[in-house]
Amino acid sequence: MVILQTGTSDIPLTANGEALIERLGSKAVGSGKFIDPNLLGKVLVSPRIRAQRTCQILFTNTDIKPTIETEQLVREWTYGDYEGLYLHEIVEQRQAHGLQPEHTDWNIWIDGCEGGESAQDLTNRADAVIDQVKNFHNEWIHKSGRNLDDQGGDILVICVLEYSKEMKSTRLGAMNLGLL
């Protein structure tokens, strides 16, 4: 598979991507479903148009629309000098700069991005979002006048692959366990 590394490029969902989200949304989003808008306090969405469109499609057929916030902290990885390059082009560039031994692959989690974010930068953003979620939950739980059966304290984060991996690993401590 050939993958173009894009973080700051604003690339729309493909027609296939939109169709996939439409199918997912109809099955997974709605009252009593996996993503129940009644239970959402808010939705944090990456500023990239593909994430924004994903969010729009997911909640198209729901009666209840959650509060949606565009959150810069859940944006995609900033690839810096590697933005818009294919994996083989990144390896060639790194080799030309003496950063990549021959016959090895580039690993964003270990090697980082020239002129872009490091894995630690992404971890710091994920930590900040997790803190934001914890604070939101804490405020919701301790809200004056809230009944035990009140709904609406959940948060959904809509982002892309690398950022979602980091959110999971930060929450689960997978980076410390060497799982990524």
TrEMBL record:
Q: Which Gene3D superfamilies match?
A: Phosphoglycerate mutase-like
Q: Which SUPFAM superfamilies match?
A: Phosphoglycerate mutase-like (SSF53254)
User: A Pfam family for this UniProt protein?
Assistant: His_Phos_1
Q: Which InterPro entries match?
A: His_Pase_superF_clade-1 (IPR013078), His_PPase_superfam (IPR029033), PGM_Phosphatase (IPR050275)
MF terms from GO for this chain are:
sedoheptulose-bisphosphatase activity
Q: Which residues form the signal peptide?
A: none
Example of a GO biological process term: ribose phosphate biosynthetic process
Task: Give the protein name, as stated in the record.
Answer: Uncharacterized protein
The lineage, from the top, is: Eukaryota, Fungi, Dikarya, Basidiomycota, Agaricomycotina
